[in-house]
């Protein structure tokens, strides 16, 4: 019985991975607005009914991918204890991921990206920022505004970086982000 459940779980994981890989390759090739469910299914080599057993829409597939990325960044930050003093722990991992997956990040947050993809990416970054600043200030409009400001700054900096012809090094991007956002973080801390 356990082997059967494990086999089903592997099939589910394999199908989800195939659909996610198909979405990534189509995002890079065409952009979000030009992708439809049928093309996703053909690329992943699954039927439409299989797609709908796992996801209600291509947006839900996208969110699932961002949820996995958020969890991986959080785990990486905890394990590596990344982040310079005064920085947010997940930032280094996100910058590294953007560097390693530059072409994908251009499709996600670059100039040619669709609004829906950018919005979902920003929501993921906002969740990570929220988790990291929650202990600094009580919930309320100040924290909400600070989270929005920091997340927006990071997303826009990454978008500029992945689109830049003469891009700078990862360390420089992280340092610039930290320098620009440290005053906001200090404000949230009440310093």
UniProtKB/TrEMBL annotation:
Stored InterPro entries: Homeodomain-like_sf, HTH-type_Tx_Regulator, HTH_TetR
Segments forming domain HTH tetR-type: 13-73
Superkingdom of source: Bacteria
PROSITE patterns found in the cross-reference section: HTH_TETR_2
Pfam families named in the record: TetR_N
UniProt xrefs under Gene3D superfamilies: Tetracycline Repressor, domain 2
Keywords: DNA-binding
Residue ranges of the annotated DNA-binding region, renumbered to this chain: 36-55
Alphabetized GO MF terms: DNA binding
Entry-linked PANTHER family: ACREF/ENVCD OPERON REPRESSOR-RELATED, TETR-FAMILY TRANSCRIPTIONAL REGULATOR
Protein name as it appears in the record: TetR family transcriptional regulator
Species: Ferrigenium kumadai
Lineage, highest ranks first: Bacteria, Pseudomonadati, Pseudomonadota, Betaproteobacteria, Nitrosomonadales
